[in-house]
Amino acid sequence: MSSRFTNIAALNSSVVLLLSTLAFSAGTPAAMLSPIQGSTLPGSTATFTWTTGSNVTHYVIYIGTTPGARDVRSVDTGLSTTVTIEHIPTTGKSLYVTLYSWIDGVAQSNAYSYAQFIGTPASIWFPSPGDTLTGSQGFSWTGGSNVTEYVLYVGTSPGARDIFSKNTGTETSTDVQFMPINGEPVYATLYSRIGSGLQSNSYVYNASTNTPPAMTSPTPNSTLSGSTVTFTWSSGTASGFVLYAGTTAGAHDVANIHLNSTSTTVKNIPTNGGTLYVTLYYGFPVSNWRHIDYTYTEATTP
What we know:
The protein contains one helix and 21 strands. By secondary structure, it is mostly beta strands. It has three domains: 114 residues, Immunoglobulin-like; 83 residues, Immunoglobulins (Immunoglobulin-like, Sandwich); 84 residues, Immunoglobulins (Immunoglobulin-like), CATH 2.60.40. The chain is rod-shaped and about 115 Å long. 23% of the residues are buried.
């Protein structure tokens, strides 16, 4: 009888020891914090972050296109609870993540699924952000992925299009004429249509500080001296000029003169006391024309 009680006592002692050992060795596997289960990934690169769990000696993350697979990436992160994964597919299909936690030499896991990003928006590669733009500026960008059309806005404030806007279709470059020349910031927004939505990347540049020319003689709004007049102007930083003179605004029925100098003589100006309209075109370079308009009172022949 005493032997039986002794055996029971020994058995109970073994059970207590086993339970205490299991309690000591028990742990909790890590759980994903970000991205949130079921969410859409931000692009072809995503950062995964998880809890520490308890009694975990290291973590391994599998990423694949089917449950439990690792055909995209597998990483042993040691004791780090975060990892950034690049080159994730962006086909819009599901992505599967399995997070393994090693506890007492045994891998315990939690599984998650996400929606792949459906495409990658284009990004401008020329000019580089922060560059000083020319008067006539070309813009070029990458194709992105799954993009069906591009739209470029250029403006004087973020997201604005008061300088330029164009849907370029599938073309990945365009020229913008008549850029500002005041040295102020210029903002470009490149939109990429992916699926039914628009995604964008934004950039900041600097306008050039070109100086426009200015008419010095005759004085604008003055009365001309006769039918032959020499017009003179400061060059600013322009590299070419065209002078129009006409009897209506913007016309060149009196003169149409192309030149690289800052002075020209106009003949056969009417002398009936009417208005002469003078338009001075200038280029930064010549291919990027701007203009300044002036008016004069014609001389009167007795």
